[in-house]
Design goal:
Layout lengths: L18 H7 L1 H4 L4 H14 L5 H28 L7 H4 L3 H6 L3 H13 L2 H4 L26 H23 L5 H26 L14 H4 L1 E3 L24 E3 L2 H8 L3
Parallel strand pairs: 1-2
């Protein structure tokens, strides 16, 4: 059961209308790394671990619910950025509210031009957000990743929060509105919090590597195949201890011969 509190989780505000940035911000409303995707992904994953991991079920449901509150913040911000779009454009450009916010004929013409560049705001949503990304591509359930193995799902969520955090960073480069940046910084910071929560949850599942229940074949799980003709580069991925296993990497200079020999009966 949900209980809607009619105040936003963060007091989202804007300094002035900006249809151009409203269009960009749709990426976090209905895009592949946006808040709706995150909410639906964590909900779906939660049902798969409800009995085996009740504590992780609780975590996933809590974060999924918070993602909906973030969707509300993004949607409210988009609506404020589109203030004045729903209505006759010729009349909108002359309203007293816009006259206060948009100084000069050039600013008003730019405002109308940006609204026209994304007609969904004019002919479909009436000045509200649409469930699409910034290019108008509809949201899809294909964005949701849920594999049924909790260690896989948690790793997927860590990656999802990382991508969402970076998208907010990119978005902040395209607005000079201090108030909008405050909202985006809050949302970006919550992505970091969720990243850490998912990582902590993963660490409580031991063993959590490799994913699944079947053991991997040590002949291949700790082998690094050198498949390039460039000079040899070495790093933690092909020397030292294998992550999660107390075994050393084998650097295979000739992968074809190695595979042929290890597969010989």
């Amino acid at each position: 059961m949900f209980h809607h509190v009619k105040e936003l989780q963060f007091n989202a505000r804007v300094s002035k209308p900006d249809p151009r940035f409203a269009r960009l911000l749709l990426e976090q409303f209905g895009g592949g790394n946006g808040e709706l995707k995150a909410a639906m992904q964590y909900f779906v994953q939660a049902f798969g671990c409800r009995h085996a991991y009740p504590d992780k079920y609780d975590l996933l449901m809590d974060i999924a619910t918070e993602e909906f509150s973030h969707l509300e913040i993004v949607g409210a911000t988009i609506q404020m950025l589109l203030n004045g779009v729903n209505g006759e454009l010729k009349d909108v450009s002359e309203t007293s509210e816009l006259n206060k916010l948009l100084k000069g004929k050039e600013a008003k013409e730019s405002y109308i031009h940006e609204a026209m560049m994304h007609p969904h705001f004019l002919v479909l949503s009436g000045g509200g957000p649409t469930v699409t990304d910034s290019q108008g591509v509809p949201w899809s359930g294909a964005f949701v990743n849920a594999n049924g193995d909790l260690t896989v799902d948690l790793r997927s969520n860590i990656a999802a929060e990382s991508r969402a955090k970076i998208v907010y960073e990119y978005l902040m480069q395209f607005t000079d509105d201090v108030l909008v940046k405050e909202s985006l910084r809050f949302l970006m910071t919550r992505e970091v919090a969720h990243f850490q929560q998912f990582q902590a949850a993963l660490e409580t599942i031991q063993p959590n590597f490799p994913p699944g229940i079947l053991e991997s074949d040590p002949r291949y799980s700790n082998a690094y195949f050198n498949l390039s003709n460039s000079e040899e580069y070495r790093g933690p991925w092909n020397k030292g201890k294998s992550p999660g296993l107390d075994e050393t990497w084998k650097y295979i200079e000739d992968p074809i011969t190695y595979v042929a020999e290890t597969m010989a009966f």
